[in-house]
Amino acid sequence: MTFINYASREINCKIVYYGPGLCGKTTNLQYIYDSTATQAKGKLISLATESDRTLFFDFMPLELGTVRGFKTRFHLYTVPGQVFYEASRKLILKGVDGVVFVADSQEERMDANLESLYNLEENLRSYGYDLLKIPYVLQLNKRDLPNVIPTNDLTVELQRKGEPVIEAIASSGQGVFDTLKAVAKQVLTELRRS
Amino acid sequence: MREQRYHQIKAVMARLRLDSAARLVVLVDKDGQQIAVHGELGELDTTSLASLVAGNVAATGGMAKLIGEREFPTLSHEGERESIHISVIGRVLLVVVFDDRSSLGLVKLRSKQISQELAAAFAEIERDSEFATDALPFDEITDEEIDSLFSQT
Fold first, then answer.
1. CATH number, domain at B94?
2. In this predicted structure, what is the pLDDT of residue A90?
3. Coil/strand/helix, residue B125
4. Which ipTM value was assigned to this complex?
5. Alpha-carbon gap, residue A161 to A110, rounded angstroms
6. Mean pLDDT along residues B2-16
7. How many domains in chain B?
8. Range(s) of the domain holding residue B138
């Protein structure tokens, strides 16, 4: 839920990066963190296992600038992608304003994408959200790998409602800011509507 | 949250900090957004603290449900020098950071004493927002303004 503080003139929105294990959610955040000016970001917090797999979440606050005299801050979160972290994954979605689904474009990860997308819809529903109604972007990641499914086929399988579909190579930053911008724009537009 | 309520809440936090001899008092909502902070900030990154407190409460809340409890209303973490006490007050988390100038017992007692007052203040805030009639600052935001936010980064 977007938090508007009129006293300190701040608006805070929560964006969650969702997707199957090893699809590149943390890599998205890491790239945003590395390429953002120091004054615009806070710390990148990673609650990860010893082998660098996300255990609970990654978090980074990002200050975008001022609109109508209000400081606009986005809180970016990732969920743990591995199937058995279901309980903690669900917790992160609480109060979400916008979701990025990071799909792994490799052929052998198609089932994992579908399972994770289904899981996202279920978990959103448990909080009373509808994927069809919330700000949402589909990112097709790892486009540089040799065994990827063509973009059109992935889109047919994974697109839910005509949401923006962005091709990405998160490790080199391609498509990372386009994805963030697409979801942030929807979140702010949603505020206008509400 | 309106300015008047914000100052009312800050005053309550200041009193709690004084009465419990704490270093810092922070209010966080359950989604991890920082609502207000009062005390010795130093270099402390309160935005990250807010997010981790909310994650902590969400995780222990999940554990509570697994064993048949609704939630754990308070959480404490004691370190060698610095400690944290968290109270769940409806949708809001009251976080007190304290050191050896205070004690867990005192912080628990003072937090509990002030919880009802804060709960009442937040109930008022919810009522305020239900009856709010003034326009949001984003009602007439243009696409150009949204685009320009990214060029400021």
1. 3.30.450.30
2. 93
3. helix
4. 0.81
5. 19
6. 89
7. 1
8. 3-151
Please answer yes or no on whether A69 and B137 come within 8 Å at the CB atom. yes
Of A14, A177, A192, which is closest to B31 when you measure between CB atoms?
A: A14
Cβ atoms of residues A165 and A105 within 8 Å: no
Of B32, B147, B149, the CB nearest to A72: B149
Residue A6 scores a pLDDT above 80: no
Number of domains in chain A: 1
- For residue A91, the distance in angstroms to the closest alpha carbon of chain B comes to 6
**Per residue in B125-152, pLDDT tens?**
888 777 665 556 666 677 787 778 777 5
Q: What is the pTM of this model?
A: 0.90
The DSSP secondary-structure symbol of A106 reads: B
- Residue range A60-96, pLDDT digits in tens: 999 988 887 888 899 999 999 988 889 989 999 999 9
Tokens 């628990």 locate to B108
Pair type for strands A54-67 and B92-98: unpaired
How many residues does this entry show for chain B?
153
Locate tokens 């508007």: which residue?
A4
Q: Pairing between strand A70-78 and A10-18? A: parallel
Tell me the CATH number at A126: 3.40.50.300
Q: Which domain holds residue A130?
A: 3-193
